[in-house]
Amino acid sequence: MPTAPRPTPPPRPSLTERRKAETQLEIARTAAALFAERGAAVTADEIARTSGVALRTFYRYFRTKEDAVVPLLAGGVREWIDDLATPPAGQDTLPVREALERAARRALTPADEPAAEALRWTRGLLRAMPGDPALRAVWHRVHHDSEEALRPVLARLTGADPLTARLAAAAANTAMRVAVEEWAAGDAAPDGPRGPAELVVRTLRALTAGLPELDGATG
């Protein structure tokens, strides 16, 4: 299989875009903490006030109170896709399966305390979801979007046909989701032998075992 050209990194966002993203993420963190504490009783006004923004500013960024957590959740589940799509220059060539595991493990291994705190907020959100169907719908929508983003990446890396690429994306994305949900249901620390990074390797291997296309090199 011919080596695919390394994709060109996307242009760096403008200062305005970066500031907007930072504001959205700060609101998302506040919303996640409130949902984890109070569940569906949280209001958009409460999220806005606690975040230090006007309610109209909140609605300029988000359609609903549940949508406010999307930047936090999406950042966590998309990081590994970006890592897989644009590996650092000079990185060793790996079978796609190993590259998937490495990217997923890296995404779920907190590099610092803010990253560990983000995982703990995600745990709180997942525990609040049974009592808030709209919040649960946001979680599944984020993962649906991530699966769609993963499909072309795996198609390029494997050279597989569209159906196989779709199956691989579904399996890998589900492995990530199940690993985080399983970890969130317990009390293990974000890192360590029972953390989500260890669980995701187990779920990836189980769900992608029947896809030999992932054994080819990434190029």
From TrEMBL:
Lineage of origin: Bacteria, Bacillati, Actinomycetota, Actinomycetes, Kitasatosporales
InterPro entries named in the record: Homeodomain-like_sf, HTH-type_TetR-like_transc_reg, HTH_TetR
Pfam family, one: TetR_N
This protein's UniProt keywords: DNA-binding, Transcription, Transcription regulation
Coiled coil location: none
Residues within the DNA-binding region(s): 43-62
Protein name: TetR/AcrR family transcriptional regulator
SUPFAM superfamilies referenced in this protein's UniProt entry, alphabetically: Homeodomain-like
PANTHER family linked to this entry: HTH-TYPE TRANSCRIPTIONAL REGULATOR RUTR, MYCOFACTOCIN BIOSYNTHESIS TRANSCRIPTIONAL REGULATOR MFTR-RELATED
Residue ranges constituting the HTH tetR-type domain according to the UniProt record: 21-80
Organism superkingdom: Bacteria
